[in-house]
Amino acid sequence: MTSDSKKLWGGRFSGPTAPAVEEFTESISFDYRLFREDISGSIAHAEMLLECGLITESDFIEIRSTLKEIEEEIESGRFEFDKKHEDIHMNIEAALIDRIGEPGLKLHTARSRNDQVACDLKLWTRGAIDSVLGLLESCQKALLERAQAFADIIVPGCTHLQHAQPILFSHALLAYVEMFERDRGRLRDCRKRLNTSPLGACALAGSSLPADPVFTARKLGFDSALRNSLDAVGDRDFAVEFVFSLSMIAMHMSRLAEEWLIWASQDQDFLDLDESFCTGSSIMPQKKNPDVLELIKGKTGQVYGDLTCLLTILKGLPLSYNRDLQEDKKPLFEAKDEVCKSLSVLALLISRANVKKNRLASACEKGHMDATALADYLVKRGLPFRESHRIVGEVVRYAVSCDKKLSELSVDEMRGFSELICEDVFGVLGARNCIENYRTVGSSSPGEVQRQIEHWKRVFDVEGFGEDGRGKV
Question: Which end of the chain has fewer surrounding CB within 10 Å, N or C?
Fold first, then answer.
């Protein structure tokens, strides 16, 4: 059994740690993912120690070269992790000491695992944010390309899952571009708030050694160094905020997935999903199941659970560091992984989806979606809107009883409800006329939707789309 005197923290202990405790307390099985951040943080810390005269130049050179060697071994899968060293930080430090001896023993000068862990996690989260930002943009570009490809297609716009007013299909796609842009804004805000270095806080109170936290902050690309050592080691707000942002992204993907599941259903049959993104049935040979979209919805629950897990870990912690915080990494890693996988496959699914124009044209003839256009027509002739609303409701009831569309009623039939209705009423009835008559900013008119498309092309610095659907930069 290993004596705790051989552990990097074992000087206080005379006996070994129980094997069950070593198994229970280890985190190397999941926090090994922080190895790049741990090594870059340690190299910056070592350079700071050199600048402050706490180690020699030869110490620094040995530390840096050996840490780079360890990093390459981990990347190639040749490094052997040991649970007795608990976590990625101690595994790397123990390997460093085994290989270079005394210089390795100096690396932890003016540093605690507490500020080291916080720093590594911030560096990892910063990189994860950048990855998610890129994947969100890929989804936005896929939606933008489809919006341009289907710019003239009209679909039934719904409220309460009932046909409401006609809209352009591209307008519906661009609504999700807007949602994902808000997600990108939240991530950028989160990145800005987390970009303060905790190094220098040590365990909780700072150090009496002449260390320079500002130096390491600059080296690691942080905007500033810590202001309060207690907060620096105990803060995981950035992790919660990141996972909250991921939860919002998952929610937006789930909304899109649900909408497209409805559109792709045999009852509506508006959308044709590429079969490479569908699966079959083990018993029903005819099935083409939209499993990717269903899984995107299902994974949303996992991300929500990760957010709840993080909030629950933090809710009762006194200052400053507590071992509970070891458990922050699993929900953080899982949420990022699930969202990234979903975004990656969703962008591809979107780029290969097609619409069924004939089905959509037929659907747009149902539900008297031009009723609001008729109400607006009467308003333009001086009728108060509430009176107009009542009259059109009566016209719709009459049309339903006759099994007719509003555009199939004669002028005389409609004038029976209001003498303000004239022959020009047919210029506002029908889905296409409704689309052409929308006027307000942000509406589903062809001009406004094209303006939105051009806006997003400028945002993404995309000139147009080629035959393969890829943007030309």
Answer: C
Query: Which contacts qualify for 254-261: CB closer than 8 Å, 24 or more apart?
Result: 254/296, 254/297, 254/300, 255/176, 255/179, 256/176, 256/346, 257/293, 257/294, 257/296, 257/297, 257/346, 258/293, 258/297, 259/172, 260/290, 260/293, 260/353, 261/290, 261/293, 261/294, 261/297
Please determine, for residue 291, whether its predicted confidence score (pLDDT) is greater than 80. Answer: yes
Q: How far apart are CA 28 and CA 9, in angstroms?
A: 17
- What band does 15 get if pLDDT is binned at 50, 70 and 90? confident
Token pair for residue 83?
């649970």
Distance between CA atoms of residues 68 and 87, nearest Å:
18
Given a cut of 90, whether residue 467 has pLDDT beyond it is: no
The pLDDT score that the predictor gives to residue 466 is 52
Domain boundaries, the chain: 18-109, 114-362, 366-461
Q: For the chain, what percent of residues have pLDDT higher than 70?
A: 96
Residue 103 — pLDDT band, cuts 50, 70, 90? Answer: very high
Q: What mean pLDDT do residues 437-463 have?
A: 95
Q: Distance between CA 220 and CA 399 in Å, rounded?
A: 70
What is the DSSP pairing of strand 354-355 with strand 196-197?
Answer: unpaired
- Residue 142 exposure: Cα atoms within 13 Å on the Cβ side: 20
pLDDT band at 464 (very low <50, low <70, confident <90, very high): low
Burial of 448 (0-12, 13-18, 19+ CB in 10 A): middle
Active-site residue (options: 65, 281, 344, 362): 281
* DSSP bridge pairs for 176: none
Q: Is 166 left (phi over 0), alpha (psi -120 to 50) or beta?
A: beta
Told to judge if 160 belongs to the known catalytic residues of this protein, a careful annotator would answer yes
CATH for 114-362? 1.20.200.10
Q: Identify any residues that bridge with 66 across adjacent strands, giving them in sequence order.
A: none
The predicted pLDDT at position 19 comes to 86
Instruction: Output b/e per residue, 63-75; b: 16+ Cβ within 10 A.
Output: bbebbeebbeebe
From the list 80, 115, 77, 116, the residue with the least C-alpha distance to 98 is: 80
Per CATH, which fold does 366-461 belong to? Ribonucleotide Reductase Protein R1; domain 1 (1.10.40)
Comparing CA positions, the residue from 215, 218, 140 lying closest to residue 179 is 140
- Say if residue 463's pLDDT is above 90: no
* Closest to 235 measured CA to CA, from 181, 178, 277, 196: 196
What predicted TM-score, i.e. pTM, was given to this entire model? 0.93
Its CATH architecture, for the domain 18-109, is Orthogonal Bundle (1.10)
Strands 154-159 and 162-168 turn out to be: antiparallel
Burial class (CB in 10 A: 0-12, 13-18, 19+), 170: buried
Decide: 66 and 104 in contact? Cβ < 8 Å.
yes
Active-site residue, from 14, 76, 160, 282: 160
